[in-house]
């Protein structure tokens, strides 16, 4: 395919990974994602239909996107999700999903049928009471059961663990212990700022602190070779079946090789998780316009790192962004 048909930003980065938010609805209310007062949910007519998601995905595929991750809100609450994922599988791209796991058991057989094996499971704690505190819902036992079921079916499971001081930071080595016998990745994510989540870095746990905590208990922490475009640094404790990873968005940004584009549930392109600017894709699609030029032009506005916050995170900047739940995990 010609270079003009690839999505390339002004820094020469080729973008072949699309994250699509299917909905801003979720069956949990995690405080770092959903503002305490809730959010104004999108009107149904403003949300991409399943057919529009498929058509837009096809256009991205034609622009050399080879990986699509489905996110939310919670993607599995989207009506007729099974139909959508079957159709997307026909595009010949690698499909991945990020989910809270509550409804996972309903779709694992389908995932195995269509070849979707890579599942990121949001799980911030291994303590049931703390899970209720964080998510404001009591689904812990169901989530843990579905995690085990996914592992039994040989899915590639990564646990997304947002670390917050005074909440779950004492559980770091509990998750490391989980990797001793389970073939999964415990992925620790630095607490990131979004509208309404009352972020300040005093609540954060950074990359080096995580490594210090793990190394103080476990000998033989090995840094692994990271896949190209990886958003995490990957490690293994010697002798453990699984791995652990760190997403250091705050303390050690990894933007140099960014290959990701985000599409919100209402059809807006976001070039970066922290981007305040958005490009409407759904409007032109519904208007019968060609959307390839819109996609290619949108990526030209992408900034090099964290939407221009190259040195430090700016509170005013992220408060002008969406809340996490309406961007997509």
From TrEMBL:
Annotated gene: moaA
Molecular function as annotated in GO: 4 iron, 4 sulfur cluster binding; cyclic pyranopterin monophosphate synthase activity; GTP 3',8'-cyclase activity; GTP binding; metal ion binding
Organism: Christiangramia oceanisediminis
UniProt name for this protein: GTP 3',8-cyclase
Catalytic reaction list: GTP + AH2 + S-adenosyl-L-methionine = (8S)-3',8-cyclo-7,8-dihydroguanosine 5'-triphosphate + 5'-deoxyadenosine + L-methionine + A + H(+)
InterPro entries noted in UniProt: Aldolase_TIM (IPR013785), Elp3/MiaA/NifB-like_rSAM (IPR006638), MoaA (IPR013483), MoaA-like (IPR040064), MoaA_NifB_PqqE_Fe-S-bd_CS (IPR000385), MoaA_twitch (IPR010505), MoCo_biosynth_MoaA/MoaC (IPR050105), rSAM (IPR007197)
NCBIfam families, sorted: moaA
Needed co-factor(s): [4Fe-4S] cluster
Entry-linked Pfam families: Mob_synth_C (PF06463), Radical_SAM (PF04055)
Alphabetical UniProt keywords: 4Fe-4S, GTP-binding, Iron, Iron-sulfur, Lyase, Metal-binding, Molybdenum cofactor biosynthesis, Nucleotide-binding, S-adenosyl-L-methionine
Coiled-coil ranges (or none): none
Record domain Radical SAM core: where: 10-234
EC numbers on record: 4.1.99.22
CDD domains: Radical_SAM, Twitch_MoaA
A GO biological-process term: Mo-molybdopterin cofactor biosynthetic process
